[in-house]
Amino acid sequence: MTAMTDASNITRAIVAAHAARFGTTSHAADSFTSDDPIYRGAKQACGTLGFIDIDAECLARAWRAQSERNGRFDAEAWPDTPADFGLRSFPPTRRNDAFPPCPEKLGLYAVLPDAQWVGRMARAGVPTVQLRFKSDDVGAIEHEVQAAVEAVRGTGALLFINDHWKNAIAARAYGLHLGQEDLDALAPAELRTIRDSGIRLGVSTHGYAEMLRADLASPSYIAMGAVYPTTLKRMATAPQGVARLAAYARLMRGYPQVGIGGVDEERMPEVLATGVGSVAVVRALVADPQPEEAARRLMAICNRSA
């Protein structure tokens, strides 16, 4: 599904709903109410297009806010102004509660299963690496996080630790990456502890509602996906596709952005063309028989888009 298809279907539904009530395609801003036909038409159309309910709600409210702000309804303008979604001022780095900044373009972002892989890809020149170590063994987690920090020393790679925030802070890792559920589960005091440590924070998002929730934490970067089908984890939302990823990138343009989910060498150029400054890969490296060579090819693609 292309961005044009999304916009065309939604705007037709909004125009129809709008005309049924007002007999026109524009009206004064003070005519808007909570039962406005623009809101109702957009939400219904977004649901039909496959947006989950909470994302359809975000889009419907934004479309109505956009029309209120402009004093008219524009059937061609897909909402992408942060204020229309209730987002705070951009760039987030100017906020008092912002996490420390990271590079705007993180380049090739390798998500890796253990410290050995982290060191291997860091030595291959991959600019951003993430340790996604899955274990219930407290000692093993502590050891692996510390080993990953040691593995990138002297390489120039930026290391993010997935989930294990206390270990990441203790080991003085460059950054921490949290999924949406992990971020939501943090108590306010815990989030302050993470921020006060000086560590960078990246957050996974899977649509409009999660991007808005992530923005409340003012993280260092936002990851958006899954772009394509992936077998690595069960997703609550359908694959987003590059058209929606491009819309997300326009909306969240105050953040460094990472596209993630099912990306391989063939798909990487179209993901980068959406405007994201980084692409995360997993199988494209760890499942390749020559991962260092694969990394060089993928980094070359990222460099050509820079």
From TrEMBL:
Keywords: Thiamine biosynthesis. The lineage of its organism: Bacteria, Pseudomonadati, Pseudomonadota, Betaproteobacteria, Burkholderiales. Residues 115-285 form the Thiamine phosphate synthase/TenI domain. Pathway: Cofactor biosynthesis; thiamine diphosphate biosynthesis. Pfam families: TMP-TENI. It comes from the Bacteria. This is Thiamine phosphate synthase.
